[in-house]
């Protein structure tokens, strides 16, 4: 029987060292070509996060640069537009304004670019013509919390409902729940503004259930009182619900499709063979895996979502950065326009970073293989 | 007490698609306590369907169209598997019959540590166990299959193919079942790793005394490890006999053909016409 | 008589984050036409890397490959005419044919590329090639998913033969095929080789077929040749411990039952 | 005001359609400060006098007890009202007036109104301000300068930009004082020591909605009480909703006017301009585009009803009407022809042009569509409806790169406004036009315009007017469509006393300086 | 890759031609294509179909609800809503398709190249793609569109296309990267196929479904973008489309006054075309990932046979049903 005795070490051997010349190999450590075993990895996926950080820096640079060049390609001159709005400013006054805005320089484009960066790094975004020559940073800081609050909240809720719903629909494939998919898809193909206007016409004008817009009631000022919070919730309800309705379909469809793919994986079958209750298989095994691509596309779709708020703010008179941008663009208020665009891009990047970190911790594989 | 563990009678499974596929047809066999039964046959002959079908693991469109599967429990109780309802079957699974699946690569949940996947089994089937008891049990299992208890916190992708397959075996062992079904547990593995795993399986079987249904299409391998071998073809068992008899005295033409399509490592040449 | 020389080839892969992997370490061998060399070794030992270097899908880090004494060119028409003389059959017939294209496309492309036959004879040549691998011409318009695994592998072989190469690299050509089909494909390869005088590099981890199919066997471990020699010598009388290990790991019922005669215990390897 | 709290004590909510106004600035001199955008600056900072842009066009002294101009309107003498206190308790004096105008004179405050002050002197009780040019046509600009307290503003480094957001800076003499500023609304409470007497409305709220549609919705639902906005379908959507909802349309001397680019084809031919004047249906402009919130201008002199008495006798009943026959005749006489119903000019080219109005100016956008259709149907002219964004439109009108635009007029409260806006080259500086976009330039007319503005003699003024009217009738440099009224929508649920059709002591537009006058006249109603 | 083999002997020519469109050969895609085709036809024959010119006034019928003369009523100045919707189709279709063509071409070029190459060039293109993905699109479009005074349709399409290619490129890159290492591509390389042939002949056909999906997705995004931009007034009304109609309707208070004939049809048209495009994409998805099909049709087919596809326990049918024969 000796011939049958494989000469394989049964004890786990340390990893073969570099100049290992012996013929004993550790069968345990060698899988197929597709696998290499790893040991002693770090729990925090530094490499993955580092790679992402580099990418975000690059994107940030690109966004700032685009931001720098855009207004310089636009027609029309901010000061003359301003003068036209405030009729009959004297020519001297106009020159003064130009000086204030730094538009009178005859510096080279490159010098302007450097200046732009140095201002930016000092947090100086210039002053807004459209808002009484107030610093852009101040103008934006008034609006940003509302946008981030409402849109962030609605997006997360929509993501959560869509993902959970999609998981259930996918799990119970072929059941009546499937009808939810075409319904939510239909809702998400409706233009958002149309939905919003209809919602106002029905719920605010006819039924008077909700105020017709704005973030809180007339004569209130932001403070941490129950009344104020109640106002904010009451006012935010319709915009939030319409955002949720309009964006639910995508999340639901994505999750459901991913579930259908995951449900055919072996580990689901294993879990069921293990005698796991359905609920545990659904959430612990299937949904847990299916959600990963969702998280990734969540990160990527944030830019898209933020864009959508412009319309929301118009329809609901909501005090956000979207309308600010639209007005700034129309009025050629470049400093404000650049500021808003920068802030929007920044928030998208921040959201992406968060989603990335979440992804990295949800998917142990990123901790090793990188993006 | 009879020494039969599982009696399969006139068992048929059909995939109710267009046109319907009768994947397993009128299969009869008895599995003895403690034996390794090899199941061989070419791809698509119904091995997997049979192995899954007896514990009703197949999903629609599969339907069991006839026959009975009786599990003779160690306690002396006979369980007719087709009579169990969903909840009973859920509790029955893994406790009495466990499985090692084809392709360990995908059989583990990629986002959960192997420790937690092992603990799952105890949590569901042994709710009385405390957290630390569970952890100790998991460590013990991992030690038994020589993966090492400290690997408890590893994720599947951090293990080699061989180690993953061992984790699967550990999982199958968790509740000390009386029957372990192994569906091509080594096909994706390297020859050396494969041999090591097989060695371990038979070691464990001696230690714990469970029966094994071992599926593969690698007949030479099966001949070495099985007590008895069933040869399947187009959904039917065409021959079932001890490994030695199958090797030395195959009865069915198909068995003969199968045997002749494997070149012998040490036998005379000539199979491949050079 | 042609000669393919693999001379002191080392291949180092640089993997991001994991440093360098020496996939091949000073590997040399010679393949003559009409000859078959079996290349065995466990997973990751570097077998496929040799195939890739031979087909110039990868370039060696050091060392060189020569055909009839001349080093193979890295690009241009020289490379093309080299490739015309050496073709490869992949492991997985399900993956090596483009699912979008018909059988005809697969067989015809090399004919056109290398201008093997005049245009108006293309059809005849396709028919001839399919005939060589025992496939009916009627199959020409089918696409891969309409073929069985064995048929696909035959198409892949026909494609490899189309340019009338002198050497064939077969990288585990049957490991993805069903047991009953394997032998057929191997026999086909053997026939072709006999008829056309091909030099074949047969890559496998299955010692049994390697022994039956090859004249010589090279055993590879961690990128190094640990043993080589005539097929029977290497398999039946392995010298190197690694070869012995491999050998012991391969199931061999013949020997198993021979050694067991009299004993009734039919259990597996590690069972003492 | 919340609809449920009726009667006295309810707040009055004044609304604007300008989108969120999220930056706090109470500076009344800044066009883009929140005080100016909401117009709540007007109830904090008062002016010397209120010039009524409608009705009798009269001047009501306000912070001044009396207002007096010299003959050629280069000197203004005002007597400050006595017994007036700033809202922080300090007494209001002549020094504050001097200080205010001195900021402009010294250039510390940008002279956005082009006041061109040469001297300020205190003369006993009175303050005398001297100007470099006649202010006959710019009385309102002078008198509507917000007066600010010296004791606070002397410490303000840059009055052009300072937001006045510090504690105790937003101090005026006005009827209301700032109470609460938030991004969503601004609240002001009644000034208890207001010189003008007790105020019925204890609190004013200023709100800004996303656009006209949202504002209208707010007015209809009662969320907002008072606004100036062009509301489409106002009859059905607002007035019919509650009998207490009111609309007051106050015609002004200005008019929505079609400016044509006189320098280029096709409008360099007077015949075409005349033909247009005979074709365009001003009634449709008033009825359809403005939904009645305007009054037609048919007079060939281009003067509306309000300025009827300035129309010289020879043009008294010389009116346009829609007369396609006539228009075609004019064109035929000038050598125009038609080919398959398309108008061909004497050079043999098909006539076509575009009319630009910024997108979103819904009344004039509608008028564009109407004009295009009328001219196509009536004269066979292909008119392109162009709705650029504001910036593009602004550049085109200044640089003269448009074909035709609809625009408002400089409102001087008399005939001068129309004629200077359409024929005065003074508006073109650095080749950029602030008015007279068609770039009309006739020395005779220019001289008449200057005479009218600067003379102290009524006779000369009348003679100059004759020159202007004749030129306008003959040359048709622009086509006024309908008077450009001040609008005011308000409800009388809680308060009455707003100006009405019969009593137009001010316009009902809450963004006009006259709002202080209205606020003092409001009384609780039921 | 070991899906059950289906051997379908098909006649030769039809197969090769048909296979390019295989992804559209399912009920959902066909339904979507029919709806889309309807709108395309409307766009082409707008002049013939529309009863009036979109700007023709009917002073006698302002704000008129549907009547025999005006099937979908009239606007505030008596324009025929039906005619406006019909003419508006043109802008939507032209911009949607043009933008998608531009975006798809960029996506193919960038995605396939960055997927096929490796090293810094690939990484660079990938970073570029990601930048375009992350930068918020609508604000950028607003800024870019405002650079043009009266942007013609193709400019709007180009802007929408330039901003909308990144998704497609990303998906194509990932797929190309996986294709690149597939054996059949390696085989083509080993055969000495030139690079351009590898990309165009061996790779692109295998990317067709993804390209189609990304094309359809971009059409949807472009149409929504166009109508939204028109609605908020960034795109001038001279380029007539459904968004423009809604802009007028909203500005003129149609929503408030519930003049449904004015605001409902354009909104529903946008939704209809959106649904059509989603249907096509469902079809393509199911073609690419056959598992998705199992959800609907197969589950229902199972249900008819008394099986529940979600059961974790094999059904037992001890009296064999033979009606399947
Ligand atoms: N879900 C299914 N629907 C229809 N037919 C199926 C299904 N699953 C399996 N089959 C068919 O049933 C037959 C038996 O399949 P099974 O998987 O049991 O074979 P196997 O012997 O395990 O093959 P392998 O060695 O390839 O694993 C095959 O013909 C297969 O095509
Ligand atoms: N492109 C690559 N980049 C980095 N490392 C590689 C690459 N290709 C192969 N390797 C490494 O080179 C070594 C040899 O690989 P190779 O594919 O030649 O093995 P093999 O003997 O063919 O294995 P198998 O039997 O599993 O096919 C392995 O360690 C593998 O991980
Ligand atoms: Mg199987
Ligand atoms: Mg290999």
UniProtKB/TrEMBL annotation, chain A:
Keywords tagged on the record: Membrane, Transmembrane, Transmembrane helix, Transport
Compartment list: Cell membrane; Membrane
Bilayer-spanning residue ranges: 53-70, 146-171, 192-212, 232-253, 298-319, 339-362
Start and end residues of each stretch annotated as Disordered: 1-25
Keyword Transmembrane helix recorded: yes
One Gene Ontology CC term in the entry: plasma membrane
Biological process annotations from GO: transmembrane transport
Domain ABC transmembrane type-1 stretches: 144-355
Pfam families in alphabetical order: BPD_transp_1
Family, similarity comment: Belongs to the binding-protein-dependent transport system permease family.
Family matches, as PANTHER family: OLIGOPEPTIDE TRANSPORT SYSTEM PERMEASE PROTEIN
Name under which the protein is recorded: ABC transporter permease
From TrEMBL, chain B:
Cell location: Cell membrane
MF-aspect GO terms: ATP binding; ATP hydrolysis activity
PROSITE patterns for the chain: ABC_TRANSPORTER_1 (PS00211), ABC_TRANSPORTER_2 (PS50893)
Transmembrane annotation, as ranges: none
Topological category with respect to the lipid bilayer: Peripheral membrane protein
UniProt entry keywords in alphabetical sequence: ATP-binding, Cell inner membrane, Cell membrane, Membrane, Nucleotide-binding, Translocase, Transport
Any single GO CC term annotated in Swiss-Prot or TrEMBL for this entry: plasma membrane
Pfam families attached to this UniProt entry: ABC_tran
Residue ranges of domain ABC transporter in the record: 6-259
Protein origin, superkingdom: Bacteria
CDD domains hit by this protein: ABC_NikE_OppD_transporters
The family this protein is said to belong to: Belongs to the ABC transporter superfamily.
Protein name per its UniProtKB record: ABC transporter ATP-binding protein
Originating species: Glaciihabitans arcticus
Automatic annotation (TrEMBL), chain C:
CDD domains per the UniProt record, alphabetical: ABC_NikE_OppD_transporters (cd03257)
Segments for region (Disordered): 245-272
Domain called ABC transporter: residue spans: 4-247
Assigned keywords, A-Z: ATP-binding, Nucleotide-binding, Transport
A Gene Ontology BP annotation from the UniProt entry: transmembrane transport
GO molecular function: ATP binding; ATP hydrolysis activity
Domain of life: Bacteria
Annotated protein name in UniProt: ABC transporter ATP-binding protein
Lineage of source species: Bacteria, Bacillati, Actinomycetota, Actinomycetes, Micrococcales
TrEMBL record, chain E:
Protein name: ABC transporter permease
Alphabetical UniProt keywords: Cell membrane, Membrane, Transmembrane, Transmembrane helix, Transport
PANTHER family: D,D-DIPEPTIDE TRANSPORT SYSTEM PERMEASE PROTEIN DDPC-RELATED, OLIGOPEPTIDE TRANSPORT SYSTEM PERMEASE PROTEIN APPC
Location relative to the cell: Cell membrane
Taxonomic lineage of the native organism: Bacteria, Bacillati, Actinomycetota, Actinomycetes, Micrococcales
Topology within the bilayer: Multi-pass membrane protein
ABC transmembrane type-1 domain: residues covered: 93-281
Family to which this protein belongs: Belongs to the binding-protein-dependent transport system permease family.
SUPFAM superfamilies listed in its UniProt record: MetI-like
An annotated GO cellular component: plasma membrane
Single GO biological process annotation from the record: transmembrane transport
Pfam family, one: OppC_N
Record InterPro entries: BP-dependent_transpt_permease, MetI-like, MetI-like_sf, OppC_N
Organism of origin: Glaciihabitans arcticus
């Amino acid at each position: 029987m000796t011939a049958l005795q494989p000469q394989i070490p049964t004890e786990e051997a340390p990893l073969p060292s570099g100049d290992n010349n012996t013929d004993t190999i550790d069968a345990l450590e060698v899988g197929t070509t597709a696998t290499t075993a790893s040991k002693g990895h770090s729990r925090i996926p530094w490499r993955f996060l580092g790679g992402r950080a580099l990418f975000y820096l690059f994107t940030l640079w690109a966004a700032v640069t685009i931001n720098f060049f855009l207004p310089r390609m636009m027609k029309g001159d901010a000061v003359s537009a301003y003068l036209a709005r405030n009729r009959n400013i004297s020519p001297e006054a106009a020159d003064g304004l130009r000086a204030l805005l730094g538009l009178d320089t005859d510096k080279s484009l490159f010098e302007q670019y450097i200046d732009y960066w140095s201002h930016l790094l000092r947090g100086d975004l210039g002053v807004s013509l459209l808002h009484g020559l107030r610093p852009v940073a101040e103008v934006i800081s008034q609006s940003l919390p509302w946008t981030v609050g409402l849109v962030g909240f609605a997006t997360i809720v929509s993501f959560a409902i869509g993902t959970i719903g999609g998981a259930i629909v996918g799990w119970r494939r072929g059941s009546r729940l499937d009808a939810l998919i075409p319904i939510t898809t239909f809702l998400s193909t409706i233009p958002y503004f149309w939905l919003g206007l209809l919602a106002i016409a029905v719920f605010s004008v006819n039924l008077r259930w909700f105020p017709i817009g704005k973030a809180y009631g007339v004569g209130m000022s932001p403070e941490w009182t129950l009344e104020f919070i109640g106002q904010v919730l009451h006012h935010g309800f319709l915009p939030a619900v319409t955002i949720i309705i309009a964006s639910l379909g995508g999340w639901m469809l994505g999750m459901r499709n991913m579930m259908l793919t995951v449900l055919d994986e072996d580990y689901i079958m294993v879990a069921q063979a293990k005698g796991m209750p359905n609920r545990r298989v659904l959430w612990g095994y299937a949904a847990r895996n299916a959600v990963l691509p969702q998280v990734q596309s969540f990160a990527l779709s944030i830019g898209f979502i933020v864009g959508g708020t412009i319309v929301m703010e118009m329809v609901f008179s909501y005090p956000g950065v979207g309308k600010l941008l639209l007005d700034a663009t129309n009025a050629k208020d470049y400093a404000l326009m650049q500021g808003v665009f920068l802030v929007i891009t920044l928030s998208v990047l921040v959201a992406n970073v968060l989603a990335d970190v979440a992804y990295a911790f949800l998917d142990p594989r990123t901790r090793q293989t990188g993006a | 007490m009879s020494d039969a563990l599982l009696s399969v009678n006139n068992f048929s499974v059909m995939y109710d698609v267009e046109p319907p596929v009768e994947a397993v047809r009128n299969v009869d066999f008895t599995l003895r306590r403690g034996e390794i039964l090899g199941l061989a046959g070419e791809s698509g002959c119904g091995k997997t369907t049979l192995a899954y079908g007896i514990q009703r693991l197949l999903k629609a469109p599969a339907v069991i169209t006839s026959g009975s599967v009786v599990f003779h429990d160690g306690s002396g109780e006979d369980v007719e598997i087709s009579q169990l309802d969903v909840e009973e079957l859920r509790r029955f699974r893994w406790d009495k019959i466990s499985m090692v699946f084809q392709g360990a690569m995908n059989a583990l949940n990629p986002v959960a540590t192997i420790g937690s996947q092992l603990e799952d089994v105890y949590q569901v089937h042994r709710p009385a166990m405390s957290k630390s008891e569970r952890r100790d049990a998991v460590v013990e299992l991992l030690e038994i299959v020589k993966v090492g208890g400290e690997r408890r916190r590893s994720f599947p992708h951090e293990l080699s193919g061989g180690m993953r397959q061992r984790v699967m075996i550990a999982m199958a062992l968790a509740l000390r079942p009386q029957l372990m079904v192994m569906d091509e547990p080594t096909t994706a593995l390297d020859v050396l790793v494969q041999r090591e795993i097989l060695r371990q399986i038979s070691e464990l079987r001696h230690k714990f005394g469970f029966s094994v249904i071992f599926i593969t299409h690698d007949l030479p391998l099966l001949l070495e490890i099985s007590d008895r071998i069933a040869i399947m073809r187009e959904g039917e068992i065409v021959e079932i006999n001890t490994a030695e008899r199958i090797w030395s005295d195959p009865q069915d033409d198909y068995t003969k053909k199968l045997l002749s399509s494997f070149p012998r490592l040490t036998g005379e040449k000539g199979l491949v016409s050079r | 008589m042609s000669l393919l020389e693999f001379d002191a080839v080392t291949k180092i892969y640089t993997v991001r984050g994991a440093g360098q992997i020496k996939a091949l370490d000073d590997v040399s061998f010679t393949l003559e036409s009409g000859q078959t060399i079996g290349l065995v070794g466990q997973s990751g030992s570097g077998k496929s890397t040799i195939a890739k270097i031979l087909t110039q899908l990868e370039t060696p880090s050091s060392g060189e490959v020569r055909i009839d004494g001349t080093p193979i060119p890295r690009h241009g028409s020289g490379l093309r005419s080299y490739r015309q003389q050496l073709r490869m059959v992949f492991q997985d017939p399900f993956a090596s044919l483009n699912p979008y294209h018909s059988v005809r496309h697969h067989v015809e492309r090399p004919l056109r590329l290398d201008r093997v036959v005049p245009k108006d004879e293309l059809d005849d040549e396709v028919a001839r090639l399919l005939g060589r691998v025992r496939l009916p011409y009627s199959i020409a318009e089918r696409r891969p998913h309409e073929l069985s695994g064995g048929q696909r592998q035959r198409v892949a072989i026909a494609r490899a033969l189309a340019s009338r190469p002198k050497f064939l690299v077969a990288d585990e050509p049957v490991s993805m095929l069903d047991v009953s089909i394997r032998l057929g494909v191997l026999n086909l390869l053997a026939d072709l080789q006999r008829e056309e005088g091909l030099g074949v590099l047969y890559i496998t981890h299955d010692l049994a077929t390697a022994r039956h199919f090859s004249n010589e066997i090279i055993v590879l471990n961690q990128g190094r040749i640990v043993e080589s020699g005539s097929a029977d010598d290497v398999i039946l009388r392995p010298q190197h411990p690694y070869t012995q290990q491999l050998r012991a790991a391969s199931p061999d019922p013949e020997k198993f039952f021979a050694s067991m005669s009299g004993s009734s215990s039919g259990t597996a390897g590690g069972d003492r | 005001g919340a609809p449920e709290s009726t009667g006295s004590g309810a707040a009055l909510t004044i609304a604007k359609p300008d989108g969120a106004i999220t930056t706090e600035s109470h500076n009344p001199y800044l066009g883009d400060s929140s005080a100016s955008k909401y117009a709540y600056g007007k109830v904090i900072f008062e002016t010397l006098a209120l010039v009524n842009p409608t009705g009798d066009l009269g001047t009501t002294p306000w912070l001044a007890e009396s207002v007096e101009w010299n003959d050629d309107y280069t000197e203004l003498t005002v007597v400050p009202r006595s017994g007036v206190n700033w809202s922080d308790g300090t007494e209001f004096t002549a020094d504050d007036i001097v200080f205010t105008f001195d900021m402009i004179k010294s250039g510390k405050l940008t002279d956005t109104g082009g006041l061109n002050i040469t001297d300020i002197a205190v003369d006993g009780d009175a303050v005398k301000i001297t100007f470099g040019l006649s202010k006959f046509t710019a009385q309102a600009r002078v008198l509507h300068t917000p007066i600010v307290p010296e004791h606070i503003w002397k410490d303000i480094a840059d009055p052009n930009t300072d937001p006045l957001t510090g504690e105790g800076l937003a101090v005026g003499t006005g009827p209301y004082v700032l109470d609460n500023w938030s991004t969503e609304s601004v609240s002001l409470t009644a000034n208890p020591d207001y010189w003008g007497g007790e105020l019925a409305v204890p609190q004013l709220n200023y709100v800004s909605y996303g656009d006209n549609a949202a504002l209208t919705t707010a007015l209809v639902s009662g969320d907002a009480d008072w606004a100036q906005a062009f509301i489409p379908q106002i009859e059905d959507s607002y007035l019919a909703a509650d009998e207490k909802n009111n609309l007051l349309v106050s015609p002004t001397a200005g008019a929505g006017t079609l400016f044509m680019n006189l320098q280029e084809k096709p409008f360099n031919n007077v015949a075409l301009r005349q033909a247009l004047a005979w074709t365009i249906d001003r009634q449709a402009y008033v009825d359809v585009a403005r939904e009645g919130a305007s009054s037609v201008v048919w007079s060939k002199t281009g003067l509306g009803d309000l300025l009827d008495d300035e129309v010289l006798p020879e043009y008294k009943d010389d009116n346009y009407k829609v007369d396609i026959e006539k228009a075609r005749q004019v064109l035929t006489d000038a050598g125009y022809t038609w080919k398959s119903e398309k108008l061909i000019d004497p050079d043999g080219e098909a006539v076509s042009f575009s009319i630009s109005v910024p997108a979103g100016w819904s009344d004039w956008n509608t008028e564009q569509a109407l004009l295009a259709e009328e001219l196509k149907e009536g004269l066979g002219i292909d008119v392109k409806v162009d709705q650029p964004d504001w910036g593009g439109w602004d550049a085109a009108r200044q640089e003269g790169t448009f074909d035709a635009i609809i625009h408002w007029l400089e409102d001087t409260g008399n005939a001068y406004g129309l004629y200077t806006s359409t024929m005065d080259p003074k508006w073109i500086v650095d080749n950029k036009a602030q008015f007279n976009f068609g770039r009309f330039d006739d020395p005779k007319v220019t001289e008449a315009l200057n005479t009218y503005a600067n003379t102290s003699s009524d006779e000369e003024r009348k003679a100059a007017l004759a020159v202007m009217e004749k030129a306008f009738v003959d040359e048709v440099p622009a086509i006024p469509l309908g008077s450009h009224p001040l609008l005011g929508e308000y409800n009388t649920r809680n308060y009455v006393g707003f100006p009405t059709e019969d009593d137009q002591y001010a316009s009902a537009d809450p963004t006009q300086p006259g709002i202080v006058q209205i606020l003092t006249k409001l009384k609780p109603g039921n | 890759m070991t899906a059950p083999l289906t051997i379908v002997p098909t006649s030769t020519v039809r197969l090769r031609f048909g296979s390019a469109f295989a992804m559209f050969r399912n009920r959902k895609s066909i339904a979507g294509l029919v709806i889309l085709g309807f709108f395309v036809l409307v766009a082409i024959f707008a002049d013939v179909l529309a009863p009036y010119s979109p700007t023709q006034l009917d002073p006698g019928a302002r704000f008129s609800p549907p009547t025999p003369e005006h099937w979908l009523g009239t606007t505030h100045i008596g324009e025929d809503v039906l005619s406006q919707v019909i003419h508006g189709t043109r802008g939507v279709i032209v911009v949607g398709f043009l933008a998608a063509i531009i975006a798809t071409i960029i996506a193919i070029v960038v995605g396939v190249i960055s997927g096929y190459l490796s090293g810094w060039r690939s990484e660079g293109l990938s970073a570029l793609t990601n930048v375009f993905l992350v930068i918020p699109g609508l604000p950028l479009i607003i800024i870019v569109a405002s650079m043009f005074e009266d942007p013609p349709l193709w400019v709007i399409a180009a802007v929408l296309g330039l901003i909308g290619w990144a998704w497609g490129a990303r998906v194509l890159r990932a797929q190309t990267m996986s294709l690149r290492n597939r054996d059949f591509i390696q085989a083509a390389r080993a055969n000495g196929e030139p690079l351009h042939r590898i990309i165009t002949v061996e790779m692109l056909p295998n990317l067709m479904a993804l390209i189609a999906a990304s094309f359809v997705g971009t059409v949807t995004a472009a149409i929504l973008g166009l109508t939204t931009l028109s609605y908020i007034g960034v795109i001038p009304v001279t380029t007539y489309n459904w968004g423009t109609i809604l802009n007028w309707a909203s500005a003129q208070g149609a929503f408030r006054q519930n003049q449904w004939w004015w605001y409902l049809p354009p909104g529903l048209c946008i939704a209809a075309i959106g649904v059509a495009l989603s249907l096509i994409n469902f079809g393509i998805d199911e073609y690419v990932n056959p598992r998705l099909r199992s959800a609907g049709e197969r589950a229902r087919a199972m249900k008819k046979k008394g099986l529940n596809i979600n059961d974790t326990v094999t059904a037992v049918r001890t009296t064999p049903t033979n009606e399947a024969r």
